[in-house]
UniProtKB/TrEMBL annotation:
Annotated site residue numbers, Increases basicity of active site His: 142
Database matches in PROSITE patterns: HEXAPEP_TRANSFERASES
GO molecular function, one term: transferase activity
Binding residue positions for acetyl-CoA: 150
Annotated binding of substrate, by residue: 69
NCBIfam families: NeuD_NnaD
Domain PglD N-terminal intervals: 8-73
Protein name in UniProt: UDP-perosamine 4-acetyltransferase
Catalytic residues of the enzyme: 141
InterPro entries recorded: AcTrfase_PglD-like, Hexapep, Hexapep_transf_CS, PglD_N, Trans_hexapeptide_repeat, Trimer_LpxA-like_sf
Cleaved signal peptide residues: none
UniProt entry keywords in alphabetical sequence: Repeat, Transferase
Transmembrane stretches, start-end: none
Length: 213
């Protein structure tokens, strides 16, 4: 496998950052270090480069591409805010495709998106920018996944589904074919979504119904 030329820097140092490190190494990507508010020590052999301010002052932006190293547990805007802030500073993003993922050649993947271990992206699916498709998630044919969405581990998005920006689909959840989810929707872990869901809603259960926000 040919290494990716431009090295990457990871924003954040939590558990998701460790997943990102191993996914990047599966593609022979060089990892320079991570950026966070404080030094958490070596992260799987990856060093701390400083705070946001220190990194921006000491490293030339054109030398690296960035990867966001934190996820989310419900719909929200933290990852969107980070993506837009660093983009406004003219940093570039790495799109991360774990070597064990299966991606249709007709699928489209946005910048800064993370396709992690064991995932399947099927024919003519469109995945937006800054999306996490977490371990062993499945995105079926002709789905449209908006920017800044997190599809948690083991979730299944059936054919023709539309998911709006900044939504979170919980671990093991299933969204049935043709369903449309609005923006900033949270689907609880293990839920089965059988009806369209409006913007800003939280749904849980089998079948999924409106829950607490």
């Amino acid at each position: 496998m040919k290494p990716v030329d431009q090295p990457i820097v990871i924003l954040g140092s939590g558990g998701h950052a460790s997943v990102i490190i191993e996914a990047a190494r599966s593609r022979l990507m060089e990892i320079v270090g991570y950026v966070d508010k404080e030094d958490k020590g070596s992260l799987l052999g990856v060093p701390w480069l400083g705070t946001e301010e220190q990194f921006r002052a000491n490293y030339q932006l054109e030398l690296f591409r960035l990867v966001i190293g934190f996820g989310q547990i419900r719909a929200g805007f933290k990852r969107k805010d980070a993506f837009e802030r660093w983009s406004a500073w003219n940093y570039n993003w790495a799109t991360l495709l774990d070597a064990s993922s299966i991606i249709s050649p007709s699928a489209l993947i946005g910048i800064g998106t993370q396709i992690l271990a064991g995932t399947v992206i099927q024919t003519r699916a469109v995945i937006g920018s800054n999306v996490i498709v977490n371990s062993r998630a499945v995105v079926e044919h002709e789905c449209r996944i908006g920017d800044h969405v997190h599809l948690a581990s083991g979730s299944v998005i059936c054919g023709g589904v539309r998911i709006g920006a900044c939504s979170h689909i919980g671990a093991g959840a299933v969204v049935l074919q043709g369903i449309q989810l609005g923006e900033a929707v949270t689907v609880g872990a293990g839920s089965v979504v059988t009806k369209n869901v409006p913007d800003g809603s939280t749904v849980i259960g089998i079948p999924a119904r409106e829950g607490s926000k």
